[in-house]
């Protein structure tokens, strides 16, 4: 039996952390609901359902790999599931202080985590891969088909990058670096 980690190393669910986990849960729930809807309403696969002409449509697909169709063979599903767990764990550890210092990061990080967990849930529950259905483009020039979880990861990552950039600028200005913007 291993000794328990000190209380300081594991964050308790408190009034301060509750909003974080509520955002994560809302993203996961919305992602799951839209994917369940897509599987029921958009079958069979690869048949476009126009929403706004040919520009915005819903088309059911399954992605057994990762972003942008990356595929690592027969075990892609489990390799990317394991990587998702590692990445979410590292993100939570690395961004703990940033989330406390920046409201934008405090919004971005749980959005990324919710999106990552939404796709992880699909890797576990859907044998064919992650359910994708949002299809944007013109004619044969199309963006990769994606889902709500992918959108959340992208939006949350942009928030986190902007937050880190702002914090870097502010720390540079505070240190009196030449060319640094004042806060």
- What form results from the Cα inertia axes? globular
End-to-end gap? 51 Å
Total tally of structural domains: 1
Task: Report strand %.
Answer: 5-15%
Total strand count, please? 4
How do the SSEs run, as a string of H and E? HEEHHHEEH
- Helical region count? 5
Share of residues in helices: 40-55%
Can you give keywords for this protein?
alpha+beta; four-stranded antiparallel beta sheet; 183 residues
Write the layout of secondary structure elements.
Blueprint: H1 18-41, E1 49-52, E2 56-63, H2 76-94, H3 96-101, H4 103-125, E3 130-138, E4 141-142, H5 148-174
Antiparallel strand pairs: 1-2, 2-3, 3-4
What does this structure look like?
Helix content is 54%, strand content 13%. With 183 residues, it is of the alpha+beta class. It has one domain. It has a 4-stranded antiparallel sheet with strand order 1-2-3-4. The mean pLDDT is 85.
What does this entry show, briefly?
With 183 residues, the chain is an alpha+beta fold. It contains five helices and four strands, in the order αββαααββα. The chain is globular and about 60 Å long.
């Amino acid at each position: 039996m291993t000794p328990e980690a000190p209380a300081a190393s594991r964050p308790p669910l408190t009034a301060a952390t509750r909003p974080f986990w509520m955002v994560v849960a809302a993203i996961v729930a919305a992602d799951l609901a839209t994917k369940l809807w897509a599987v029921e309403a958009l079958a069979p696969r690869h048949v476009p359902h126009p929403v706004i002409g040919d520009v915005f449509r819903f088309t059911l697909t399954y992605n057994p790999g990762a972003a942008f169709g990356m595929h690592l063979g027969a075990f892609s599903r489990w390799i990317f599931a394991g990587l998702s767990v590692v990445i979410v764990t590292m993100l939570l550890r690395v961004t703990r202080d940033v989330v406390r210092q920046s409201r934008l990061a405090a919004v971005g990080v749980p959005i990324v985590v919710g999106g990552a967990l939404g796709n992880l849930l699909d890797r576990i529950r859907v044998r064919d891969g992650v359910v994708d259905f949002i299809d944007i483009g013109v004619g044969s020039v199309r963006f990769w088909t994606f889902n709500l979880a992918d959108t959340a990861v992208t939006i949350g990552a942009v928030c986190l990058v902007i937050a880190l950039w702002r914090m870097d600028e502010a720390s540079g200005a505070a240190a009196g670096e030449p060319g640094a913007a004042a806060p």
